[in-house]
Amino acid sequence: MDASTHNVSSVSGEAQPQPADLSPLCCVAATPAPASWEMGLRLSNRLHLGSHLERRSSYIAVAYTMTAVAVGLNLLTPLYGMYRQKFDFSAFTLTLIFAAYIVTLVPAMLIFGPLADAFGRRRILLISVLAAAVAAILLLAASGTPWLFAARIVQGIAQGAISGAASAALIELGSDIKKAALVIGTTVTGGIALGPILSGVLAQYAPTPPMLCFLIYLVLLVPALLGTLFMTEPLLPADRRAFHPHRPSLPTNGKQAFLISTAIAAFGFAASALFLSVIPSFLSGLLHTRNIALLIAPVGLFLGATPLVQLLLHNLPARRAAVIGLVLETIGLLGTLYAASIGSLPLLLVTAVVGGGGGGLAYLGSLSLINQLIPKEQRGDVFGTYYALNYLSLGVTSISVGLLIAPLGLTTAVRWVASVVVALCLLTALVVIRWLRVEA
């Protein structure tokens, strides 16, 4: 019976029923996706877009905050003459006020850099903004020289806190390291340029110059505070490391390259300090004027050329930008000294642009090189060391000129210090050129 049945079915060609395929993927290709899947996909896309917008807005908030804090650093520069008359302090006391800022700034950078790696970028940025606001309030309430010392000390804390944390945050929130270097460079130099221009114009033409200047600055800090409060924290807890006070930190790999890259910016900072020492004093004697806005205009030209050149020439390779920048700074510094010796205002303005542009290129090249060397878990720490060395160079240069003015006079003091700075700039440029040839 079984055999006959088998034969009949074989002859008739009827297919035997097959077991059902119970695999859950058997009909995926042929079955339309449920509506819930489409909704999930749309939700995922919206979440991704929302995350991208949050990071973008946080990136802008950090850049603005870096600029706002930098604006406050040089607000006092055009006002020192006014405060010297009001509080009756000497040129040596003025040097000590600046020294108080540097003495606070350098250790603050070395402390807050590791803190940013341990507790995240956002908290350190908040400390910086609040410190900048406290410094402005101290200057608003200033009734004597000690208030200026206190304000400069707090400004040192503000800048020391933001330098490493903000630089690291911009790299982590963005996707392009070279673009981050450009943003860091232009925000810092742009803020530093805007500060003296703002206070110089207000000091000359506003009815209550110091008060109005610092009130406007406090208003500028409000968006920085709000942006920092609501920004996305770029350093996840898993990427943080325990805080341990220690000596200045270098990157795990490429220590020699780090020191060369830092020297590019550090000696550029030193050259900038000399520009800012020479230009106002030279103009005061040449033009026989006390118009603060006029005296500060070439300083604004020098500082304004820095971010402008960075924006125009940001596509230059980092090392080439560094070499060209150092050479231009040297030419600008020597040209400024020569312009001061012959009393040529047009030449002074040209050399101010050349020197400022050179400083911008050198700083941009240095930052681009540094960004490639620092591992993520060390960014805040190593950036703190980087900025500490840069500002230490600036501080040593300015304080050296201040201390030598009494025995030598301004012109001789600047020439002596400038000869050292020019030699260091050219030596660093030669080292970078050799570095290029070795890797060519």
Distance between the termini: 90 Å
CATH superfamily: MFS general substrate transporter like domains
Strand content: under 5%
What percentage of residues falls in helices of 4 or more residues? over 70%
- Overall pLDDT score: 81
Query: What is the string of helix and strand elements?
Result: HHHHHHHHHHHHHH
CATH class: Mainly Alpha
Shape: globular
| CATH structural fold name | Growth Hormone, Chain: A
By DSSP (H or I, 4+ residues per run), the number of helices equals 14
How does this structure look, described?
The protein has 440 residues and is mostly helical. The protein has a single domain, classed as Up-down Bundle (Growth Hormone, Chain: A), CATH 1.20.1250.20. It has 14 helices and no strands. The chain has helices at 2-12, 35-73, 80-87, 91-119, 121-140, 145-173, 177-205, 209-229, 255-287, 292-312, 318-342, 345-371, 379-408, 410-439. Helix 9 runs parallel beside helix 13. It starts with a helix and ends with a helix. The relative contact order is 0.13.
